[in-house]
From TrEMBL:
Listed name of the protein: PiggyBac transposable element-derived protein domain-containing protein
InterPro entries in the record: PGBD
Matching Pfam families: DDE_Tnp_1_7
Sequence ranges assigned to domain PiggyBac transposable element-derived protein in this UniProt record: 102-211
Residues covered by region (Disordered): 1-38
Composition-biased stretches (Low complexity): 23-38
Superkingdom classification of source: Eukaryota
Length: 224
């Protein structure tokens, strides 16, 4: 029995149990709502909630058309250094080296370390002016993370707090976190492996959000 036949059998069993229980919910209506959501930006229609009975199976999962895969040409013999170089390539390393200085001035520049050209900075057109100093590195890493892996079907969105006690306008206080004060980030991760596919640094009201998803929760909008 192939995957298509298994899916059809599962839906048939589910339909029979629903008919016996007198429920108004049907696999067809569920499938229609799922297929329609595929061409709509309104993600609230991806799956309809329905009451589950002890003797009734869960409804079929929504269609998943992506192909999970590692998009890097890796081998089992790869070292940790090779994985590191896959994300921080020669271009990014060269950029970091060119923007830093000799060791004797390290202490002097430590508090003002940045990787952007101040002469080229335009606050009106920049995606996130507060992150201007580190934007080239941040943008490069996020691009690499997204290109390297196509995540599996199940993903999770969560927030993380990076310990920081310096002066910064968007420091967050979260008493339930181990590091209560710090820089908050929202991360979209693959549930199975924990791989960070996308992340965004929260900078308050200036955090870059997509207007197409204004009806979704803030944590979702930050990563879509």
């Amino acid at each position: 029995m192939d995957s298509h036949e298994e899916a059809s059998s599962s839906e048939s069993d589910y339909e029979e149990i629903l008919q016996e229980s007198g429920s108004d919910t049907s696999v067809e209506s569920f499938s229609n709502s799922s297929s329609n959501s595929g061409v709509s930006a309104d993600l609230s229609l991806v799956r309809n909630w329905c009451e589950l009975q002890p003797d009734a199976p869960a409804p079929p999962a929504f269609p998943f058309t992506a192909v999970p895969a590692v998009n890097l040409d890796t081998t089992d013999e790869w070292s940790i250094l090779q994985y590191f170089e896959a994300f921080l390539d020669d271009g990014l390393i060269t950029h970091i080296v060119n923007e830093t200085n000799s060791n004797k001035r390290f202490e002097a520049i430590h508090q003002n370390l940045h990787f952007s050209n101040n002469d080229e900075f335009d606050e009106a057109s920049h995606p996130n002016p507060k992150l201007n100093k580190i934007w080239p590195v941040y943008d490069c890493l996020v691009t690499k993370f997204r290109e390297a892996i196509t995540p599996e079907k199940y993903i999770a969105i969560d927030e993380s707090l990076l310990l920081y006690k310096g002066r910064l306008g968007w420091i967050q206080y979260i008493p339930l976190k181990r590091a209560r004060f710090g820089i908050k980030t929202y991360m979209l991760c693959e549930s199975k492996s924990g791989y960070v596919w996308n992340f965004i640094i929260y900078t308050g009201k200036q955090t870059n959000l997509d207007a197409d998803y204004k009806d979704l929760p803030v944590s979702h909008r930050k990563l879509l």
